[in-house]
Amino acid sequence: MRHSRLQECVYCSSTANLTDEHAPAKLIFPEPRPSDLITVKACLDCNQAGSKDAEYFRLCLCLNPLAKDMPSVVALKPTVQRSLQRPQAQGFKNRLLQALEPDHGRIAFTVEMGRIHTVIKRTVQCLYLHETGEKLPDTHEVRVASLEVLAQLGREKAQEFRRDFIEPLAQQALKLVADNQFAYSVIHTSRQFVSVWGLIFYGILPFVAFTGRKVRMPQSSNPASSHFCNQG
User: Fold this and answer.
1) What is the pLDDT of residue 228?
2) Strand, coil or helix: what is 86?
3) 91 contact partners, CB below 8 Å, separation of at least 6
4) Sheet holding 195-201, edge to edge
5) Under a CB-based contact definition with an 8 Å cutoff, are residues 171 and 182 in contact?
């Protein structure tokens, strides 16, 4: 594993009860896990705070029609099934059933994009530390632009976004992790703590994220939900 040398929590700066935080979360990779997973330090509380969203992200990988038949994702499914059989998972299963609904002969699964974005934000926050040796200060944050968010842009804005961010990211060399199950590229701008990230899970699920000063986002820009369909 590749470790950061900073001996404080990547999220809250605590130096107590430090654990290894994986970027991205190790549970999205099937066992036996690769030896090149990236880790930074996080306190136990912050580490555990992200575990439920990471499990949700893993479930979405297993249900996503683009990824669900890939060998590594298929290998994850027995672990996901066992996790759902735990007594403490009953509330999660109830919410999962509520997210399933018929859609023209198929089953649509409504994804809570806010939870997906939380996983991406935590991953980028860790990768930033891994890449630069510095953690993002409290004045800065990670913002995510997934395909669902980009689809809400008008044509002109979408073209501008592609020109300014997607195309430059595509020209950067990808950094491959976990037998190519995860890859990322980054552009560090001339402004301190401002960067652009491209993340790809299993070669087909992309996200774009930014680090920058915290801003107050309008309510309508917060990710709500998205859905995809599987054959019933």
Assistant:
1) 44
2) coil
3) none
4) 140-145, 205-213, 195-201, 182-188, 175-177
5) no
Query: Are β-strands 38-43 and 2-3 bridged in parallel, bridged antiparallel, or unpaired?
Result: parallel
- pLDDT, tens digit, for every residue of 125-170? 999 999 999 999 999 999 998 666 677 777 888 888 888 888 899 8
Tokens for 44, please give them.
């136990």
CA-CA-CA-CA torsion for 208, 211, 165, 201, nearest 10 degrees? -20
Domain boundaries of the chain, sorted by first residue: 2-112, 120-231
pLDDT of residue 232: 38
Give the CA distances from residue 98 to residues 62, 81, 87, 93, 101, in Å, rounded to whole numbers and listed in that order.
Answer: 18, 18, 18, 9, 8
Nearest C-alpha neighbor of 98 from the set 113, 109, 90, 88 = 109
Structure tokens at 50: 């992200």
Residue (of 213, 191, 209, 192) closest to 140 by Cα position: 213
Give dist(CA 202, CA 27) in Å, integer. Answer: 14
144 near 209, Cβ under 8 Å? yes
What φ, ψ does residue 33 adopt, rounded to 5°? Answer: -80, 150
pTM for the structure as a whole: 0.83
